[in-house]
Design brief:
Low-confidence stretches: none
Number of helices: 7
Radius of gyration: 19 Å
Mean pLDDT: 91
Shape: globular
Structural class: alpha+beta
Length: 247
């Protein structure tokens, strides 16, 4: 889960909610130039974090605070395999993208962990098989995954409240066309992405968040109960095309 410290407690955004936010972002992309099996790709984006089950795992720091995902322990290989296998129930394209995501997240561990290296090798073989069966060029598959990662990154920037104040720009990541994109806040309070990659000049995306006033917890059960009873609010962001990019 994504944990943001506030003056009166914690703001909690579940990873599945963050993935849905990423899918909302994807749905507004300008697909006039290239469509990466649009609906299947958005489905993969919406489900890519179903590996995370915050209600089942240890979610406390040593100090008893809610555990942000950046501090979580590595997922066991069996859990990664299960996530990759279950993705196939939605189809080979979805499974391919989620498999590519698992490889991207865990590639640095392969040098020190032979089991991880074997897992990644198997996943890449599966990806190649699915691409051949679907008659998809590897470059097209890579572009689709880059798009997925771009949407995921922008969703995390929003969910972690990382957009700088004062109009300063923050780089998102490269898009599927190799273009580098940045996000910043306009004087109006709306957020702008440059260069503007979306199909409309203004839209709103939203995510649900839970709010905890208790700062420390004695057990995971206590935290889970508090989260179940916590008030929920909708966070929304308006993304607007910069005036200097409007035709």
């Amino acid at each position: 889960m994504i944990v943001n410290l506030q003056s009166d407690g914690w703001e909690i955004i579940y990873h599945r909610a963050h993935a849905l936010l990423a899918a909302q972002i994807a749905g507004h992309w300008d697909f006039n130039k290239q469509v990466y099996r649009l609906y299947e790709t958005i489905a993969a984006i919406a489900h890519h974090d179903h590996l995370e089950k915050e209600w089942e795992e240890d979610q406390l720091t040593d100090a008893g605070a809610p555990l942000d995902f950046t501090l979580e322990k590595e997922s066991p290989l069996e859990k990664l395999r299960q996530h990759a296998d279950e993705a196939l129930y939605q189809g080979r394209w979805v499974a391919m993208l989620i498999s590519m995501h698992l490889c991207f997240l865990n590639q640095a561990k392969a040098e020190e962990d032979p089991e991880m290296a074997d897992f990644l090798k198997d996943q890449r073989q599966r990806q190649a098989q699915w691409q051949a069966e679907l008659e998809v060029d590897p470059a097209e598959a890579e572009a689709a995954y880059t798009f997925m990662r771009w949407c995921d990154r922008l969703s995390l920037i929003l969910s972690q409240r990382q957009v700088p104040v004062g109009g300063r720009k923050l780089e998102i990541t490269n898009g599927p066309n190799g273009q580098t994109y940045s996000i910043y806040q306009l004087d109006s309070g709306d957020l702008a992405v440059t260069p503007w990659p979306f199909s409309c000049d203004k839209f709103t995306v939203k995510v649900d968040a839970c709010y905890l006033s208790q700062l420390q917890f004695d057990s995971n059960d206590e935290l889970r109960q508090a989260l179940g009873e916590a008030p929920r609010k909708t966070i929304s962001w308006v993304l607007s095309q910069p005036d200097d990019e409007k035709s």
